[in-house]
């Protein structure tokens, strides 16, 4: 079996359900993040976009630091999920500079990742955001007052978005087939969504 039990794990009953469990088990927290960011607002202003990106950059810095520590302890699992290619904090920093805004100086304090199940739960949130990112990109392109703004961090893989998501799904299912805990993954994903919403709450839209 491959290092850390991911890459060559057998496909046993139970692995097929983990992505559905992640989706349904985090639905409430996911919706809270979407309400907090409100990036599909038709009146989204340039300064609010920059403010949201700054908070997201800080969060990604913290989340990726934890994942880097996990990758150091579990290099086989990190290689299986192609972790280095999935980093996005630098893209958020570049997007902020393109908006004449400063990158984040700090991020939230996130709990360390105890193992690969926790890491995959966190990655579910980070990687899943690339799917919604394609819709956000199209929305931003439709706003005349944001003409010319290109945010690379929302859809970093371009035409490979579907393939990268499929690869993450495969590794996650293989992890469960090898004995990983879907419940631990869901708990980690929920905690990640909650931390993201809390960190971004200062830039949430003000109710009318």
Radius of gyration: 17 Å
What about the largest sheet? Answer: none
Provide the number of structural domains.
Answer: 1
Helix coverage percent of residues?
55-70%
**SS strand fraction:** under 5%
Total of helices: 8
Order of helices and strands: HHHHHHHH
CATH class: Mainly Alpha
Any idea what the CATH architecture is? Answer: Up-down Bundle
CATH topology type? Heme Oxygenase, Chain A
Separation, N- and C-terminal Cα atoms: 56 Å
Low-confidence stretches: 1-16
Write the layout of secondary structure elements.
Layout: H1 18-25, H2 27-37, H3 46-73, H4 75-80, H5 89-98, H6 116-141, H7 161-177, H8 182-200
Helix pairs in contact: 1-8, 2-8, 3-5, 3-6, 6-7, 6-8
């Amino acid at each position: 079996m491959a290092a850390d039990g991911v890459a060559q794990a057998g496909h046993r009953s139970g692995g097929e359900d983990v992505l559905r469990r992640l989706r349904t088990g985090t639905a409430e927290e996911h919706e809270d993040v979407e309400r907090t960011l409100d990036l599909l607002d038709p009146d989204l202003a340039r300064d609010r976009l920059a403010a949201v990106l700054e908070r997201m950059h800080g969060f990604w810095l913290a989340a990726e630091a934890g994942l880097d520590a996990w990758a150091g302890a579990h290099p086989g699992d990190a290689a299986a999920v192609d972790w280095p290619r999935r980093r996005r904090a630098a893209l958020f920093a570049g997007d902020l500079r393109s908006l004449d805004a400063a990158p984040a100086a700090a991020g939230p304090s996130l709990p360390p990742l105890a193992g690969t199940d926790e890491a995959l739960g966190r990655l579910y949130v980070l990687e899943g955001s690339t799917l919604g990112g394609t819709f956000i990109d199209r929305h931003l392109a439709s706003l005349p007052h944001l003409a010319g703004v290109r945010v690379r961090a929302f859809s970093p893989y371009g035409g490979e978005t579907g393939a990268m998501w499929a690869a993450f799904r495969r590794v996650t299912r293989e992890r469960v087939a090898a004995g990983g805990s879907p419940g631990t993954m869901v708990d980690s994903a929920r905690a990640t969504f909650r931390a993201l919403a809390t960190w971004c709450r200062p830039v949430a839209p003000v109710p009318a």
